[in-house]
Amino acid sequence: MFPGVVNQQSPIFHRKNGEQKRPIGSLNAEALKYEKSICSNCNGGLTQRHDESWRTLSNTLMSLTRQRCSTVDLKKVFPSSVYQSVINVQLFFAKLFGCKAIESGLDVDLTCTASSIVNNDVHPNIYLKFRHSDNGKSASYCAVSDFEVFHDKHGRLIYAHFYYTVGEYTVDVLYSENVEDLDMKGYFKPDQTITSFELCEVDYLQGFSEQKNS
Fold first, then answer.
1. Judging by DSSP bridges, how do beta strands 157-166 and 148-151 pair with one another?
2. Structurally, how many domains does the chain consist of?
3. Which of 102, 107, 135, 162 lies at a 20 to 30 A Cα distance from 68?
4. Contact 199, 64 (CB under 8 A)
5. pLDDT category, 45, cuts 50, 70, 90?
6. Which structural domain range is residue 105 located in?
7. Pick from 164, 196, 159, 208: which is nearest to 12 by CA?
8. How far apart are CA 52 and CA 91, in angstroms?
9. 43 falls within a domain
């Protein structure tokens, strides 16, 4: 789901697997559909609440005055239920992660992802970070990156990361079953205490190169 209006006069831009970006003038365009999907129900009524919570938050982010490390007050964004709405936002990206993993052939067990979506519960291994994006594009610019994947010397998956950019902000999506040795500054997942988050600076300092490879 992309926020705002998408048409021929206000397109979004699509890029896949390193190919050149191209304008897309409709959300029904084939280019925006994954060749394989987890299931049709996942993209229908099952995740509608996740889509709507993401639309609400995304529209808020698009309306913010450009600042360094703006604080986003989630009580104002979701006055009725902050915790459940943040779960919904996380599960929006859990669905995107699952679809990308299947499409990319990523060797990862999606049982937990499917269970979290079906049960509308927190995904224990997906973390989000929101930051400004200095891409020089219009508000309609939208891009989803390829996966960045790191394994240890035994071939075990340490993390899979991709980012999702809309206009002047970016969401970093990190999947990891053990974040002990990762740089998690700015990342979060839903919990009962969350009421705000920082919209961080533009630069994506990966910071994972210092981790232990064992």
1. antiparallel
2. 1
3. 162
4. yes
5. confident
6. 35-199
7. 164
8. 11
9. yes
- 6-37 confidence digits (pLDDT tens): 445 555 555 555 555 555 544 444 444 445 55
Q: State pTM to two decimals.
A: 0.79
The answer to whether 39 and 45 are in contact (CB under 8 A) is: no
CA 31, distance to chain mean position in Å, is: 19
3-state secondary structure the chain: CCCCCCCCCCCEEECCCCCCCEEECCCCCHHHCCCCCCCCCCCCHHHHHHHHHHHHHHHHHHHCCCCCCEEEEHHHHCCCCHHHHHHHHHHHHHHHHHHHHHHHCCCCCCHHHHHHHHHCCCCCCEEEEEEECCCCCCCCCEEECCCEEEECCCCCEEEEEEEEEECCEEEEEEECCCCCCCCCCCCECCCCCCCEEEEECCCCCCCCCCCCCC
Q: Is the residue at 161 inside a domain? A: yes
In a domain, 120, yes or no: yes
Number of other residues whose CB lies within 10 A of the CB of residue 103: 15
Would you say residue 138 lies in a domain? yes
